[in-house]
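Q: Focus on the shape:
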Amino acid sequence: MAILYALVARGSVVLAEFTAATTNASAIARQILEKIPGNNDTHVSYSQDRYIFHVKRTDGLTVLCMADESAGRRIPFTFLEDIHQRFVRTYGRAVFSALPYGMNDEFARVLSQQMEYYSSDPNADRINRLKGEMGQVRNVMIENIDKVLERGDRIELLVDKTANMQGNTFRFRKQARRFRNTVWWRNVKLTVALIILLLIIVYVVLAFVCHGITLPSCLK
């Protein structure tokens, strides 16, 4: 999975988050929220090991995700823009007074669904390519996380690969189950069609037999 973790926050107050792997990304994300300089809108990325924390802050609302470096910048920032729009559209001005994790029960599911979509669906990148690369993303420089965190404050990022493998296994089983259901319905439809065809044949045969029996009586 390309995007492994995501959160939505107002300043340093986390309103919703979701992780697709066993990782301490949440602790590092909170450090980033506290250390991001200024209050202006910003798009910034910080690298740590083979993972990158992408941050988008607009109108006081921060959306952050951690992605594998192979995901590049376009997909993570398109994901962040999508999440920002969904969050504002869903909660409006309530985001400015919500308590910590006030939207987590509901919006964590949205984060999960969109993380899976942008990580695994090829249409996610295809649509964005058609729209063209966002100008602000093109100018985002990926800095080492030491730029924002004091070296003594830095937490080593831990990601459990087993969790990723389990997630991939779950998606494979889900796809296999969907394929089996499709094949089952196709067989059911074929069986019904054959039964209908057989009934038509039987009806035609019986019609001819009955016609052959009644015809001589008609000639008398």
The chain is about 55% helix and 20% strand.
